[in-house]
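Tutorial, part two.
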Amino acid sequence: MKRLRQSKLHEQLSASFCREIVSGRLAVGSLLPSEPELIATYGVSKTVVRETVQVLDRLGLVRLQHGKRSVVRPEAEWNILSPLVQVSYREEGLARGLLEELYAVRFILEPSAARWAAEHADPAQNQELKAVVNSMELALQSPHDRKAEFLAHDRQFHLQVAELAGNAVLSAIIRDIRGLLTATWSATEPSRQALETVLQQHSAIAEAIIAREADRAELAMREHLDWAASIDASGIA
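Running the prediction step on this input gives:
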């Protein structure tokens, strides 16, 4: 077995076992290797092994059994909203179903957030939203590769819309969703055309909110999500 790098060993080992479980290579009901076996196989300390098993237990992937080997839990018990689990699904080519369900939730939440933002946002907040769109445009116009910066502004835009909606619970849920999308799509390579489309759509949403046109804001957000869901937006929706 390939030995792990010395930095963040338990994170690497957790990610490796997460993929094994998500893929089914470690089937439901099967046992993880024993602590001595893991230490010998991966060349890590007892502390790293125990931290790894604790991570998998917190994610609902295994059932920690003190004095016994941990057992893989059924999929219904997994924390599928965990970025680590989502990344594993994506890397194993199994994310399509989860992605469709995630967009279904976004369709419920984000058009309403845009509507409420148009109804509640004050001029100062609107200027902040406009500034985010301007930052996205500057990142896109740069001759250098500023994809990461563009994606950061994209995430901030959706968080800003949720905040302007004036509903703390809604804002928290959308924040978690955006964090999840950022984690699972950070390695994608969106096309220039996709980035330009995202910018145009975000601009339309912002303009409707600033104009206090709730119907138009809701529709613009829905159209954006429709487009994003159809192509998976290369991870930048």
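The chain has two domains: 9-85, 95-235. In part three we will examine how such features are distributed along the chain.
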